Amino acid sequence: MTSIIDATPTQPSTAANPARALVCRGCGAEYPLVAQHACYECFGPLEVGYDQAALARVTRADIEAGPQNLWRYAALLPAGQDPASRVTLDPGLTPLVAAPGLAAELGIRAPLWVKDDSANPTHSFKDRVVSVALTAARGLGFTRFACASTGNLANSVAAHAARAGVPSIVFIPGDLEQGKVVTTAVYGGDLVAIDGSYDDVNRLCSELVETDEFEDTAFVNVNVRPYYAEGSKTLGYEVAEQLGWRIPEQVVIPMASGELLTKIDKAFSELVEIGLVEAPANGWRVFGAQSAGCNPIAAALHAGTDVITPVRPTGIAKSLNIGDPAAGLYALEAVRRTGGWMEYADDDEIRDAIQLLARTTGVFAETAGGVTVAVLRKLVASGKLDPEAETVVYNTGEGLKTIDAVAGQVGPTYRVKPSLRAVRDVGLLG
Amino acid sequence: MTSIIDATPTQPSTAANPARALVCRGCGAEYPLVAQHACYECFGPLEVGYDQAALARVTRADIEAGPQNLWRYAALLPAGQDPASRVTLDPGLTPLVAAPGLAAELGIRAPLWVKDDSANPTHSFKDRVVSVALTAARGLGFTRFACASTGNLANSVAAHAARAGVPSIVFIPGDLEQGKVVTTAVYGGDLVAIDGSYDDVNRLCSELVETDEFEDTAFVNVNVRPYYAEGSKTLGYEVAEQLGWRIPEQVVIPMASGELLTKIDKAFSELVEIGLVEAPANGWRVFGAQSAGCNPIAAALHAGTDVITPVRPTGIAKSLNIGDPAAGLYALEAVRRTGGWMEYADDDEIRDAIQLLARTTGVFAETAGGVTVAVLRKLVASGKLDPEAETVVYNTGEGLKTIDAVAGQVGPTYRVKPSLRAVRDVGLLG
């Protein structure tokens, strides 16, 4: 009899790491599996390439016999096949919540689901990418963990490092929500607030990673970024498995760098290629969501161009505020290829959508989730999204982290003295 | 092949409700399974009595074949055997986190675990009791859900009602942390702030429940309290199952009403009685934790009396601030019977313990979790808790809900301009 906490299922046929090389997304040049994120030939971004034969040996039964977290997909990831190697809070297998009430309000007449990744250990999808990145990083010999972050990533790196007993150093923009600052600082690692935007912080980290003082340091979204990005694939695998090994016809995904969207699409493609699922009859369509204060990818789609013009982000959806999105081009490609679309929502629409989601599903999302639900609403209204097709909308973070966004909108409906008379006076008794 | 979200395993031998009657904890009088919480004979509290033969038919295999949430224990609960009957966010099966770093800092030389119930859908253990209470309530014909709450319960009732599409009305003290107010209000039910303490709110609800206007309303912790309380048993069942069907030698549990402690102890006793686990060779010992600002149960234990003197609560551990604890006597009984102890911690000790837990385990607890870890530390220091015996400490809530408690303690370790020179100037580069 197996204990639930025993995360060591036997997966004899899939115990090897299926990753084969780092492959340039631009020119196709290949590199060994080291800590490198850009191509020496064309400066294009690298991503993990797999041994397709190894992937093709993975079965549904292998996965279903695995632990109740993202490591059930270890045979499809570039790290963590050996449970003892994992640097992890064991995120994943978050709820796929049926949302009939939300569907009814929006006029969607097919099944609508919310993939609620606020249920991860530090309450955002970042726990997925961090678990994969830090597991790869420890395997590569790094002894300190770091990141540039808009908040959720900082929480996750600091918590992972605390659990693993490894030093961490986290770089954040100086204007983050207090919730995200405290929730990083409490784990006790170094926390460096930078007087600048996320893009400034990211540039600084790209410089630091080249210094001698940081040669022992894995920056999860810089020098080990190819491994990091692969963690997002699990948000595709899980939805397919939770639907009974089916791919939904439509998915709506928030975009910051654009990478999450491309990796969910990649996950669906992989599942089809290796024969674990069949594609829907008309394929799947990928929709991207941004805020009006930071919409460079959606703006490029609307303008019909591949030129993504960087912006200086504004607005309440801070976890999506990447003004110069590294994977924007690839997100455009995925959306165009699948016949999807992109939209953006302003702050008032985001706040309304947070409340709409909460009162119809019991899921309290952070501003990024508000963006996605607001965009879902717009896509239905404009006819870009088919209300007769099964749809999954991704909530990537927890409302408690961005309480200020709705604190002015909601509160007690009554305030009374503790007596029956007072309760009667406000009309709660006949 | 079964979908993960299909929470309908076949449990043919255990599909019947094992609850038999409501039984007075004072005089033993029995009542049918209705909405009643006090004995008509002696005014003692009622609790659910079971058909022991039905419980004894439950096997480990039945449970292990169940869903990955608390409903795997439905055959040991007074509601929810039929999945379609459940009013639920599917809480439970939260992580049991190994805490070797915390053990080392405290001088504990046996396995130490943190049962992290902040991982529940609304991030506290209250999702457990609310799921059971509201499922029972709907079965009893109630059409509106209500509670008196210090915050976590309010969040949970409002979210459950939103998911189920049922109206809710939640009564809270007027001075709650903003996080808990917003996180209730956002779900869209009625929210009534009462100018008074939790005990005032609770008294008011006891009056309201008797009015005609509220006869359709289940107050989860008043008229359906016996069902509600049983949900806490799952925190005992899960720990035993997650340890590979073993009961730990020592458990440290926060106390508000004292009910959680008594129900975890009851769960262990049931598991032994029905033959699912063996008791540890020397039994298990139950330890209770309160804050210095609200310590009526611990004070009674220290004074060697059964007289629990109500207090007016103060201090930052608001989710534990019940000055007149309904189950205090039974908590005293369990602690004395098992050879445990109770301790209390002041606000500074609570803040320190929140940080200690976070930096050694990656678990960010609300103030109640700080209370429990601070008390664990005191129990080790005083020799009341055996550092050579396996111990589980319960974290019942999420740090994001009580950020203010540590916001003054932690923050960025550095604040710099976005340049290598600035980073060098603060000493991060050699």
From TrEMBL, chains A, B:
What keywords does the record list, in alphabetical order?
Lyase, Pyridoxal phosphate
- Tryptophan synthase beta chain-like PALP domain location is 88-397
* Names of the cofactor(s): pyridoxal 5'-phosphate
Enzyme's top EC category = lyase
Any single GO molecular-function term of the entry would be:
L-serine ammonia-lyase activity
Q: Which InterPro entries match?
A: Ser/Thr_Dehydratase, Thr_synthase-like, TrpB-like_PALP, TrpB-like_PALP_sf
Instruction: Fetch the NCBIfam families from UniProt.
Output: thrC
Manganese recorded as keyword: no
Q: Which residues form a coiled coil?
A: none
Organism this protein belongs to: Micromonospora polyrhachis
Protein name according to UniProt: Threonine synthase
A GO biological process held by the record: threonine biosynthetic process
- Positions carrying N6-(pyridoxal phosphate)lysine are 126
**The keyword Lyase is annotated on this UniProt entry:** yes
Enzyme Commission no: 4.2.3.1
Give the similarity note.
Belongs to the threonine synthase family.
